[in-house]
Design goal:
33% of the residues lie in helices and 28% in strands. The chain is an alpha/beta fold.
């Protein structure tokens, strides 16, 4: 009988510990990766609509403020998540338009780069580097969205080693002159 009472007390203590011990929480939310781009945009709600048209983005979440600005939003392009918010006064991050440019570009791999390129241009992006086969074996180009962010789009293409080498030599010759392949010298 004493054994049963001891077992019962131990069972109650264990049960109480289970109730008070917090459940383990995954350090990275399901579906997220270790690094996720977070864009600051003047007009995040409009940017979401642009990204839907330009890149086939799907809206995952949106947390708006009473004035209509977005405190936080997340979209999915292909299998990748991109977070964003509007720019807020006093924040340590600025939109490309407020900062006078951006220090990075978002890179998108796709099966049909020509289709995605045309779709993004039709949605309002502007070409900042033409879509061409490049010496590293990709069909690659760069676009600027209406919000100041730069996007590069690419797909791997089959190219002969001779074609790659000719393009590499031409690109390196331009670099030596202080020019960049695919960019026109501005006046």
């Amino acid at each position: 009988m004493a054994r049963k009472a001891t077992k019962a007390r131990k069972s109650k203590k264990a049960s109480a510990r289970k109730r008070t011990t917090p459940a383990r929480v995954a350090p990275i939310p399901p579906g997220m990766r270790t690094v996720t781009p977070y864009l600051v945009v003047n007009g995040a709600a409009k940017a979401i609509e642009f990204y839907k048209k330009a890149f086939g983005a799907k809206e995952i979440t949106r947390q708006g403020m009473p004035d209509g600005t977005l405190m936080h939003a997340m979209i999915k392009i292909g299998d990748s998540l991109v977070m964003m918010s509007d720019e807020f006064p006093g924040s340590d991050t600025k939109s490309p338009n407020s900062a006078g440019g951006t220090t990075f570009n978002l890179h998108v791999y796709t099966k049909d780069v020509d289709k995605l390129w045309d779709q993004a241009l039709a949605a309002g992006a502007t070409a900042s580097m033409p879509l061409e086969n490049q010496f590293w074996g990709e069909r690659y180009g760069k676009l600027q969205d209406p919000f100041g962010h730069i996007w590069s789009v690419a797909t791997v293409v089959k190219m002969s080693e001779a074609e790659k080498e000719a393009k590499r030599q031409a690109a390196f010759a331009m670099f030596e002159k202080g020019e960049h392949p695919g960019f026109e010298e501005s006046n």
